[in-house]
């Protein structure tokens, strides 16, 4: 990028929300010098803890994920919407510190969380072996005080029946030299009557300690709560004017679920809040795009409380007075020419290792070795990318020679093990190679035998999945041009709201991840089947 472009004045520029579209929840924002970083949750997907980079808070590029291998976290067997929750990114003494929670369950009042810490001198790594922290709660975050001490905060989980499961925000000292927690934990803040107090971040500013928490749960009642104290251990007094940010009671707003925020100060002393939002397709309806990241401008008068205009999430806010810094646009088409998967791709429950993701055996092709069934949680073979717009598509060219009905390869619109649509090549009992369509709605599978297409004798098959608002459609090309399967499928089953399930007041399932478009290969007999994908083109409208 030329110096002329980099030095363009930004007086009239705006931040347009969401800045990270699609599944990018629980943002932790950090500035180091002139660079800004955003880390977000990834749950059951590798690479874990997705990180984005900006120099102006307007233009963002992905740096990929931090947790790239099982040395840092093993997600085999991870349940839907379990895994990596609410990472926290800080910088101190020349090192990046990343704290992340691995949440193993959320049934019957239990979470079984385990918190970890890794460090690196560069945001792109290499990252240290993980330090195992406590498992008393999730949403852990580090705070580095002015006196050189570091402190770990988290929500404090309480499993006991009849008690508040969100028992407050606890704090414990972390010894950076010894790489261990020291002393005893203590409760710092028990929250407001809104409840579900989580997602803590602590800051030192203007002679106060400022505690930012998420409250109300991560859906429609979400909010950002601010409390302050002159002393580290409190007492903390809540802002008398109410939450810093919320969408509660404003169903007309485009951005809903506003909460789980973290603050950043620019080089010139301006303040901004990165936070979670959702964009429902109808008022308080399905959020197929999942929970996304937005940024709001914060006014912070001397000795006063931080304020966001109207206390609600704005679609567009004034950008900081920084030089514009756009990044090169991501190509629409991945020709799979690189030695590793592109940064836009994620893999389900296992890292993209050469034993099943092969970019070398056949140049300019992605070879995916088949894995488990849709409900398998140890070794599925799904390479996907986030759905970032209501109207978008993924197109690919597939070469696959299935032996029997246990071998399937194709394209999917995917949410989790229970909710997906899949167009795939397989072998029929009569020996024909056929295209079939199968959907799963909360585990109830619906085949479409009337739409089966004979693909015998065709070496290369074009496949396309299309999100058209609340509808998913599939197209195919057997060499004579694109044909559409004559069925409109429900896209809203690929949403956080649809995936969530409460039974007798207890969460049997949550939905935290948003929809994906992906390349999916299944080898249910373990016979060594693989499929070659020549390219993949993602477009938004």
What does this entry look like structurally?
The chain is 1% helix and 47% strand. By secondary structure, it is mostly beta strands. The strands form nine sheets. Strands 4, 25, 28, 30, 31, 32, 33, 34 and 41 form a nine-stranded antiparallel sheet that branches. Strands 24, 26, 27, 29, 35, 36, 37, 38 and 42 form a nine-stranded antiparallel sheet that branches. Keywords: Glycosidase, Hydrolase.
Jot down its keywords:
541 residues, mainly beta, 9-stranded antiparallel β-sheet, 2 helices
Radius of gyration: 24 Å
Determine the mean pLDDT: 95
| Helix fraction by DSSP (H/I, runs of at least 4) | under 10%
**Beta-strand residue percentage:** over 45%
- Which residues form runs of ≥5 with pLDDT under 50? 1-11
Secondary structure category: mainly beta
Q: Count of DSSP helices?
A: 2
Largest sheet: 9 strands, antiparallel
What is the CA–CA distance across the termini?
26 Å
Molecular shape:
globular
Beta strands, count: 42
Strand and helix layout:
Blueprint: H1 3-6, E1 14-16, E2 28-32, E3 35-40, E4 45-46, E5 48-54, E6 61-67, E7 83-92, E8 95-103, E9 113-120, E10 131-132, E11 141-144, E12 150-157, E13 166-175, E14 180-189, E15 198-205, E16 208-215, E17 223-229, E18 237-238, E19 245-246, E20 256-265, E21 271-278, E22 291-298, E23 316-318, E24 333-334, E25 346-348, E26 357-358, E27 366-369, E28 382-386, E29 391-399, E30 407-416, E31 419-427, E32 433-441, E33 444-447, E34 453-454, E35 461-468, E36 471-477, E37 482-484, E38 489-490, H2 496-499, E39 501-503, E40 506-509, E41 516-523, E42 530-540
Antiparallel strand pairs: 1-23, 2-3, 3-5, 4-25, 5-6, 7-8, 8-9, 9-10, 11-12, 12-13, 13-14, 15-16, 16-17, 17-18, 17-19, 20-21, 21-22, 24-42, 25-28, 26-27, 27-42, 28-41, 29-35, 29-42, 30-31, 30-41, 31-32, 32-33, 32-34, 35-36, 36-37, 36-38, 39-40
